[in-house]
Specification:
Number of strands: 23
Radius of gyration: 31 Å
Strand order of the largest sheet: 1-7-6-2-3-5-4
Shape: globular
Helix content: 25-40%
Oligomer: single chain
Structural class: alpha/beta
Number of helices: 28
Distance between the termini: 36 Å
Length: 725
């Protein structure tokens, strides 16, 4: 790595080899600061020019509405936060590659003449910033990274990719540049500091620290479905969100028109990642959870044993539902008779049967098939009328199909079915369920699915989450689900086969970014392999990328947690911490309150993870210690105006905005804190239905720390962790 220029850090180049490079470096730092100030001025001018535009420029009302929405989106993209740097890097091309220099940032900024001052990190010209190496320079002479503190440029660091000219013997390299050594791994102090920088509040973007292997995933085409199997701290969530931002940039019209969905495991997780896409200038993505995705089919009011929920989430249920639906078709036994004037036109029962076979053979959606049958029968009558010599206009076919005689006849053969009525009957009627199940379900499985006390009507049913997912499947059998351009699904290892199908049909003509870690699977119905998951998504050709380089979780922490991997995911490669800092790992039997009090003054966020059943006791411990904290999972009355936290501090009002967060173990997945206290690891394991799931839950909890981890236990650790030495 090259020398660095900073007001706080000494230069690492040039010492004892020639002229002191610090003065030229400071002058260059001031030039960069002036450039940053000028870029902010021009960004403000871009926003002013956009604000002066108005819907009145459109030619009609529809055009005005489209233009107004476009301008509103553009203004949001041009918003400037003075604490967020406009650029974080610079690339200098060799003379042979044009000799141009580009500042790379979160959004494009141009001067009044239209020339770029800052290029968007997603633009093709920015690719070498992330991927160029001494082995493959991609036309670069040097790469520069900037250090910032609250939006103020504090220093820069140059890495020589290729030398523009040879340095004569006895002379020093140019200020800010050191000779490349292809055999030495590059190390960036600024990059390391940015990765390890303490934080409070929700997750932030990683646009300045994307690694080459991550960039390849981020820039994968819109036509590709990618699974990112990522160990803790590898940045898989950030990679998925940055891919969403990239696709919105590279395929703006298509993705905006057809829609993009980000699916997370729960609302707390979505609040944790809420600021990432807006910080990148993107607001055209809907964030939701699986329960919210299927909520339109009924109210989530019930719960059920894990074994039953697992069975309902099994892929075999798709065939059961399909057979149950199509069993409603009735074979014609009477002819269709259509009175028209003094004549009666007929379609014999055998001809109607042929028409039904013809329609079913096209494999339509159920409701579309009914409409096709009406028009098929109407066509047969139309041919008879035309053969009789009657003159008909071009609308006659549709008018015949809409006559009461045809509609009523088809309704008898092809009855109207609703998702709720079908599932209500399936879970209430043993004979109906047995007929629909065929050989797919055993007698014991059918017995488990049946309600002990069936509700009188579908409206009285206490639908569970697994039921709502089945209702969603039925709805798609009735009428095709509208597909989206792209879906990002995080923590996807926890989704059942039927949940994956629900996502897959929403990306039927689009693609997906699937994020997860099989070692962190904590539901009884979780995926056991990504190959199976891709089959359920309808994307067997999807590509699996595995990230094992842990940039966030320190070495001592990840090594301790990895002791569980042989017991929870023996086939996965263990994560490797690439940070030089090993972090701090402490095992203690000290009381919880004093432990957290000792961390209250530490820089960065503090997460206190406890068994779900121990939440009340932990709340009492923290309150008794006089600590202000928020509880993850307690829904705020309004996301914009959160209520006061249980600790009573006015500035610690809601999850992720507080300095200390109390986290139920079931909600820890996907979250990160600078300092983590895991209380009662044995209790976390015991809180799950089986030991493997409990150990996976513990693995999740132990890998949430970015700087330090304290494991508070009562004298005995789960034996799978060893002695804890």
């Amino acid at each position: 790595m090259s020398g660095a220029v900073s007001e706080k850090v000494e230069h690492t180049h040039g010492a004892g080899r020639g002229p002191d490079p610090r003065e030229p470096g400071r002058a260059e730092l001031e030039r960069e600061r002036a450039f940053l100030a000028d870029a902010r001025v021009n960004l403000a001018l871009m926003r002013e020019r956009t604000a002066r535009l108005g819907p009145g420029m459109a030619g009609d009302r529809f055009g005005a509405e489209v233009l107004e929405a476009t301008l509103a989106r553009r203004l949001a993209q041009l918003a400037d936060d003075p604490e967020v740097p406009l650029f974080f890097g610079r690339i200098d091309h060799t003379a042979a590659s044009g000799g141009e220099t580009f500042h790379v940032g979160r959004r494009h900024v141009s001067d009044p003449a239209g020339d770029p001052m800052v290029v968007d990190w997603r633009a093709p010209v920015s690719v070498p910033f992330y991927r160029a190496s001494r082995a493959e320079p991609m036309g670069l002479a040097a790469r520069r990274r900037y250090g910032f503190a609250r939006g103020v440029l504090t220093g820069y660091e140059d890495e020589a990719i290729t030398m523009p000219t040879a340095t004569p013997p006895g002379e020093s390299a140019p200020p800010g540049i050191t000779s490349p050594d292809a055999d030495a791994p590059a190390h960036s102090t600024i990059l390391e500091a940015e990765i390890e920088r303490p934080r409070t509040g929700p997750m932030r973007d990683i646009v300045a620290t994307i690694q080459p292997e991550q960039d390849v995933i981020v820039r994968a085409g819109l036509d590709r479905t990618v699974v990112v199997q990522g160990a803790p701290g590898t940045g898989k969530t950030a990679v998925g969100l940055h891919r969403a931002a990239y696709l919105l940039y590279a395929h703006r019209e298509q993705v905006t028109r057809r829609g993009m969905l980000v699916v997370g495991p729960n609302r707390s997780f979505l609040r944790y990642i809420r600021d990432v896409l807006p910080a990148l200038g993107e607001i055209d993505a809907t964030q939701t959870t699986v329960p919210e995705l299927v909520a339109g089919h009924g109210r989530l009011r019930g719960d059920e044993p894990a074994a039953v929920a697992t069975l309902k989430g099994d892929a075999r249920m798709a065939g059961v539902l399909r057979r149950a639906l199509w069993s409603h078709l009735v074979e014609p036994s009477e002819p269709l008779v259509l009175p028209r004037g003094s004549r009666r036109w007929r379609v014999a029962a055998h001809a109607a049967r042929e028409a039904m076979v013809q329609v079913v053979g096209r494999d339509p959606r159920y409701d579309a098939g009914r409409e096709q049958l009406r028009h098929t029968l109407a066509h047969r009558i139309l041919l008879q009328i035309e053969a009789s010599g009657d003159a008909l206009d071009e609308t006659a076919w549709d008018r015949i199909a809409r006559t009461p005689a045809v509609r009523n006849y088809v309704a008898e053969l092809w009855p109207v079915v609703t998702p709720a009525k079908l599932l209500h009957r399936l879970l209430s009627d043993a004979d109906f369920l047995a007929a629909a199940a065929g050989d797919d379900l055993t007698a014991a499985e059918r017995e488990a699915l049946l309600w002990d006390r069936p509700p009188r009507t579908p409206g009285a049913a206490r639908w569970t989450l697994a039921d709502l997912v089945l209702l969603d499947e039925i709805a798609d059998l009735l009428d095709r689900t509208t597909p989206l351009a792209h879906i990002v699904a995080d923590e996807a290892q926890d989704l059942s086969a039927m949940m994956l199908r629900a996502l897959g049909r929403r990306a039927r003509t689009g693609s997906l970014t699937v994020l997860g870690d099989l070692a962190q699977a904590t539901t009884p119905w979780a995926s056991t392999s990504w190959t199976e998951a891709l089959e359920h998504l309808g994307r067997p050709d999807g590509h699996v990328e595995e990230l094992t380089a842990g940039f966030r979780v320190p070495g001592d922490v990840i090594d301790f947690a990895a002791r569980l991997l042989p017991h929870v995911a023996p086939d996965l490669a263990p994560p490797v911490a690439v940070r030089r800092s090993r972090g701090r790992l402490t095992l203690t039997t000290e009381e919880l309150g004093p432990i957290v009090a000792g961390l209250a003054g530490a820089e960065g966020s503090v997460g206190v993870i406890v068994p779900d059943g121990g939440l009340a006791a932990a709340r009492g411990d923290l309150t008794g210690a006089g600590l202000a904290f928020a509880v993850v999972g307690e829904e705020p009355a309004d996301d914009d105006v959160p209520p006061a936290g249980p600790g009573g501090a006015a500035d610690d009002r809601t999850e992720f905005d507080a300095h200390v967060d109390l986290v139920p173990a079931s909600l820890a997945k996907g979250l990160e804190f600078d300092h983590v206290v895991v209380a009662d690891p044995a209790g976390i394991v015991a809180g799950e239905p089986d030991r493997t799931t409990g150990l996976r839950r513990l693995y999740v909890c132990l890998t949430r720390a970015v700087t330090s981890l304290v494991v508070r236990h009562d004298g005995t650790l789960p034996p799978e962790l060893g002695t804890g030495d």
